[in-house]
Amino acid sequence: MKRTLIVLCLALLFFSAYNSDAQAINDTFDIVLGPSGEVISGGGSGFNGGFWYIYPSGWINQWFYDHPFDPDRAKIIHIEFDIAPGGGGIGQVVVAVNWSTPEWSAIGYLDSLPPVPNEAVPEETYIVREMIMGEPAFPVEIVNAEHIIFDIIIWEYNPEWVSIDVMGNDVEIFNGIIVHDCVDPETDVENESWGAVKSLYR
Predict the structure, then answer these.
(1) How many CB atoms lie within 10 A of CB 201?
(2) Which of 102, 109, 114, 199 sits CB 3.0–4.6 Å from 161 for a disulfide?
(3) Sign of the CA dihedral running 167, 168, 170, 175
């Protein structure tokens, strides 16, 4: 797949490329994981009152609706959050951004339901994940507070739903924002700086 991570040094350049007519959606999230990886608290502006869903794979996930599925458009996602160790002093975490597949949209739930955990909802069919921090087998150790910034373009299609996934223990994620936008990359973001980013990363 051609989904592409935009390195941090290009983040400001990347967002200066937005056309003023773009309809970006701003959402928020936060979560605290305990020593055993349990959800102690959490919330946000996502689906079902910012509920965090726990999947059989171990991912803990909050969904955000964007726009209807569109195979002719792209998705731009910007994520920022603060992360810090919990009460134990050292935490471990894996963080990912994910999105629903065309197969999920074809079922026809539209904006009423993301692919929440269910025996009839295989994650590998309906969810695509891109790691932000660590890997499930290699979590990142959190000793000090950090501010994380991550940008991505999904070129293949505009998914209806995007999500933040976390997995780990003894960590706090707060001040989380996710800005997501369905765009036409040929018309919505036409200028020299966007062209430079597109030529390097598409």
Answers:
(1) 16
(2) 114
(3) negative
Give 41's contacts (C-beta < 8 A, 6+ positions apart): 30, 31, 32
Say how many domains are in the chain. 1
59-86 pLDDT tens trace? 999 999 989 999 999 999 999 999 999 9
Give the tens place of pLDDT for each residue, 23-60.
789 999 999 999 999 999 999 999 999 999 999 999 99
Which helix (H) or strand (E) segment holds residue 35: the answer is none
Tokens coding 200 = 């390097």
Residue 107: CB partners within 8 Å, gap ≥ 6?
none
Q: How far is CA 39 from each of CA 16, 164, 180, rounded to the nearest angstrom?
A: 36, 14, 25
- Residue 193 · residue 49 · CB < 8 Å: no
pTM of the predicted model as reported, rounded to 2 decimal places: 0.82
Least-confidence region, from 92-96, 117-121, 165-169: 117-121
Determine the structural domain holding residue 25 and report its residue range.
4-201
